[in-house]
TrEMBL record, chain A:
Transmembrane segments: none annotated. This is Lipopolysaccharide export system ATP-binding protein LptB. CDD domains: ABC_Mj1267_LivG_branched (cd03219). Its EC number is 3.6.3.-. InterPro entries: AAA+_ATPase (IPR003593), ABC_AA/LPS_Transport (IPR051120), ABC_transporter-like_ATP-bd (IPR003439), BCA_ABC_TP_C (IPR032823), P-loop_NTPase (IPR027417). Residues 6-247 form the ABC transporter domain. One of its GO terms (cellular component) is plasma membrane.
Automatic annotation (TrEMBL), chain B:
The chain crosses the membrane at residues 7-25, 31-51, 58-79, 99-119, 126-149, 169-192, 223-240, 260-285, 297-320. InterPro entries: ABC_transp_permease, LivM-like. It comes from Shimia marina. GO terms for cellular component: plasma membrane. It is found in: Cell membrane. One of its GO terms (molecular function) is branched-chain amino acid transmembrane transporter activity. The keyword Transmembrane applies. This is Leucine/isoleucine/valine transporter permease subunit. Keywords: Cell membrane, Membrane, Transmembrane, Transmembrane helix.
Length: 251, 327
């Protein structure tokens, strides 16, 4: 248990009669990529939102480095080390790419109550922002208005902002969706590097990527984790093949 | 330099040039009009921080304008009647010192903004508009029914208050004082827009979730912005009361809140000089059209509608184009 960084215990969330997450428990260990897969509407994004505190859970608990996060809001959880990306990009669209990255670096610093110093001339913030943009391949696009980015570039910027936080865990909701082949390859390379700085809970639909990257995989169906295991265990599990994988993934 | 910068410099030149000309041509009324524009601009600069940068549509900013006004009225009226404000537990005298009055106006309106902000910033959208409006009206009715300071009739002050080295009763000198304050506040606001706080506050306007996800609390950012915003508008209120040597509940009315917002919409929401240009145009229309027809507000309304429909960035947006991201 010592290398467990994030632990989720018995999370529930209902929207009316719909049980979006139903008694979900899982953990994330140092150095690993733990993929969360499952059909559309299985509750994957809901689970992430519950972990980050953007959605209040009906019940259940979340621990980060053994600290119970109950009662702590999304900002507090981010400060404690939860870095996330959104399934639908969530950025300050009027700001430039660099400004979004600086915003993240500012969050890492812990306060924005500085009123007279030009933030875009703050060397430490700029360094962190530039290095994150560099890592995701947006180094050339710092001056672009975020609204003018392509869909794929926005995904990259999401990851860059999470990087500037230097979090203890990454929670990534479909970071490769819509990236294209080359972009997806780059992202896979990036995630492989990142797992060394912090473990990643990765939601991903691309099964090639999942099976290439993940150390463990959890399968979520109708809000319930029906299995957790290594890629090899998941691959051969007949129940999962029936429920989700179908014949996409060769045995 | 960007087009907007040229436009801003030209605006300041006109705003300082017109009263200078009026002074030489011996037209004190024009100087008073220009002073009015400067003070309204200052009130608008205050609101623009909340509205433009923070996205907080406050319909209660007249509260701060009026509180600043009453800070002046109450202190000066006690000074002119030689009666202390309070005697127990300790004596507080009135004052004719502008500097003291400004500080009290800033402090009082900041405290009011803190109280109103704490209670209203948990809401957003139309609820926020309604709550700020309601607080504004509450203070308005309170002033009307408070006989000690004139109630509905307001308070008259015989002489303008004092500032060291300035003859404040000379229109041009009082204008200079107000203009200097406006310039100082604009410099500060320019820095603030480009600061860490400005970046985070405007990010919270664009995307609250994003700001939360990097570990910052939009509520705190907005509360600080609302307090600074209220304080600046409060300072403008103290100057306005001194300009008129009169303060009444009208300064606290929701129409006043609306006018301050109108300056910003005309000039350009979120633009540094938006409220300055807006206040100048407002005063010009009020003066020129007001002389032609009692119904000048109809034309003002038409202008406003035109801007909202066809020039979302206000006059500055139309002349200088889309705002460049601050860098
Ligand atoms: N805010 C919400 N209100 C109501 N229903 C929601 C809300 N968010 C998600 N849902 C529903 O919960 C289920 C799980 O959604 P989601 O977590 O987004 O699934 P996934 O990310 O696995 O595709 C879906 O049926 C979705 O329609
Ligand atoms: Mg999802």
């Amino acid at each position: 248990m010592t290398d467990t960084v994030l632990r989720v215990e018995n999370l529930f969330k209902s929207f009316g009669a719909l049980r979006a997450t139903n008694d979900v428990s899982l953990d994330l260990r140092a150095g690993e990529i733990h993929a969360l897969i499952g059909p559309n509407g299985a509750g994957k994004s809901t689970l992430i939102q519950q972990i980050t505190g953007h959605l209040a859970s009906d019940s259940g608990r979340v621990f980060l480095m053994e600290e119970d996060l109950a009662g702590i809001g999304p900002a507090g959880r981010a400060r404690r080390g939860l870095g996330r990306t959104f399934q639908i990009s969530s950025l300050a669209m009027e700001h430039t790419v660099l400004q979004n990255a600086v915003l993240g670096a500012l969050g890492r610093r812990g306060h924005a109550m500085s009123f007279f110093k030009p933030v875009m001339k703050d060397v430490a913030l700029l360094e962190a922002a530039h290095s994150a943009l560099d890592q995701v391949g947006l180094a050339q696009h710092g001056a672009v208005r975020t609204a003018d980015l392509s869909h794929g570039q926005r995904r990259q910027l999401e990851v860059a902002v999470a990087l500037t936080l230097r979090p203890k865990v990454f929670l990534m909701d479909e970071p490769m969706a819509g990236l294209g082949l080359e972009g997806a390859q780059q992202m896979i390379g990036l995630l492989t590097e990142l797992r060394n700085s912090a473990p990643i809970l990765l939601i991903e639909h691309d099964m090639d990527a999942v099976f290439a990257l993940a150390d463990r995989i959890s399968v979520l169906v109708y809000g319930e984790v029906i299995a957790t295991g290594t890629p090899d265990e998941i691959r051969v599990n007949p129940e999962i093949r029936r429920a989700y994988l179908g014949d996409d993934v060769p045995l | 330099m960007s087009r907007e910068t040229y436009l801003n410099i030209a605006t300041l030149a006109v705003l300082a040039g017109v009263p200078l000309w009026a002074w030489m041509a011996d037209e004190p009324f024009t100087i008073t009009l220009a002073t009015r524009a400067v003070i309204f601009a200052l009130a608008g600069v205050g609101l623009n921080l909340a509205l433009g940068l923070g996205g907080l549509v406050s319909l209660g900013h007249a509260a701060f304008f009026g509180i600043g006004g009453y800070a002046m009225g109450i202190l000066a009226s006690h000074a002119q009647s030689y009666t202390p404000l309070i005697e127990v537990p300790f004596v507080i005298e009135g004052t004719k010192s502008m500097i003291v009055i400004w500080l009290v106006a800033i402090l009082a309106s900041a405290l009011a903004a803190l109280a109103i902000g704490v209670l209203s910033l948990r809401t957003s959208g139309v609820y926020f508009i309604m709550i700020t409006l309601a607080f504004g009206q509450m203070i308005y009715y309170f002033a009307i029914s408070w006989p000690a300071y004139g109630g509905e009739d307001g308070l008259s002050i015989y002489l303008r208050n004092d500032f060291p080295g300035v003859n404040t009763l000379m229109p041009m000198q009082f204008f200079g004082l107000c203009f200097a304050i406006l310039c100082l506040v604009l410099v500060g606001m320019n820095l603030l827009q480009k600061s860490a706080f400005g970046l985070a506050l405007s990010a919270a306007r664009q995307n609250e979730t994003r700001v939360l996800s990097v570990g910052m609390e939009p509520y705190k950012l907005r509360l600080v912005a609302f307090v600074i915003s209220g304080a600046i508008t409060g300072l403008a209120g103290a100057l306005f009361a001194d300009l008129n040597r009169f303060v009444s509940p009208t300064m606290l009315s929701w129409q006043m809140s609306g006018e301050i917002m109108i300056f910003i919409i005309i000039g350009g929401v979120g633009r540094l000089f938006g409220p300055v240009i807006g206040a100048m145009i407002f005063i010009l229309l009020e003066h020129v059209l007001g002389g032609l027809s009692e119904f000048w507000h109809v034309y003002l309304g038409a202008l406003l509608l035109g801007i909202v429909l066809f020039a979302k960035g206000g006059v500055i947006g139309a002349l200088a184009g889309r705002e460049k991201a601050h860098d």
